[in-house]
Amino acid sequence: MIIYIIIFLTLFAALIASLSQIAFKTSLGKSGLSLLMLIKKVFSDKMILLGLLGYAVSLVIYLFALDRAPLSVVYPIFASSFIFVTLFSKFLLHEKISLIRYIGISVIFLGILIVAISY
Q1: Quick check: 109 pLDDT over 90?
Q2: Three-class DSSP category at 79
Q3: Residue 72: left if φ>0, alpha if ψ -120 to 50, beta else—which one?
Q4: Of the candidates 108, 109, 111, 19, which has an alpha carbon nearest to the alpha carbon of residue 57?
Q5: Can you tell me where the transmembrane regions are (predicted)?
Q6: What is the pLDDT averaged over residues 10-25?
Q7: What is the reported pLDDT for 64?
Q8: Rounded to whole angstroms, how far apart are CA atoms 42 and 51?
Q9: How many other C-beta atoms are found inside a 10 Å radius of the C-beta of residue 84?
Q10: Rounded to whole angstroms, how far apart are CA atoms 53 and 16?
Q11: What is the distance between the alpha carbons of residues 14 and 75, in angstroms, rounded to a whole number?
């Protein structure tokens, strides 16, 4: 029973990390900032700060899960962030996703599923 909670928490951490990526991309867009301007933006932009907060929360949840289950289980499940980011990119940022990328995401999903049920 505890492993299902760990899997859920790891998926939740991946979801938060993925939303953080969306916050970063929303803030930056295609701005082409210099390194100095980018550093300044990191400390002043609300969306980037929100993304950093999301990363911090995600890290705490991830570490909690990692403390209770093997790395060889938790880390592959955290890779679900690749799936979440791709789907959020499509539906929230309206990015085009090719068929081959959907196939790749499906392979990642199958790998995560195999790892999750193998524990």
Answers
A1: yes
A2: coil
A3: alpha
A4: 19
A5: 47-66, 73-93, 99-117
A6: 97
A7: 97
A8: 10
A9: 19
A10: 10
A11: 10
> What six digits make up the tokens of 22?
């969306």
Q: Output the six-digit token pair for 70.
A: 């093997």
Q: What does the block give as tokens for 47? A: 């969306």
Closest alpha carbon to 15 in 61, 73, 64? 61
- Which amino acid, residue 70? P
- Split at pLDDT 50, 70, 90, the class of 1 is low
* 48-91 pLDDT, tens digit each: 999 999 999 999 999 999 999 999 999 999 999 999 999 999 99
Measured between alpha carbons, how far is 80 from 76 in angstroms, rounded to an integer?
8
Angle, CA of 112, 117 and 119, to the nearest 5°? 105
Give the up-direction half-sphere exposure of residue 11: CA atoms within 13 A in the CB hemisphere: 11
Tokens of 99: 């068929």
**CA gap 58, 3 in Å, rounded:** 18
**In the chain, where are the structural domains located?**
2-118
Amino acid at 40: K
In DSSP notation, 37-70 reads HHHHHHTT-HHHHHHHHHHHHHHHHHHHHHHHS-
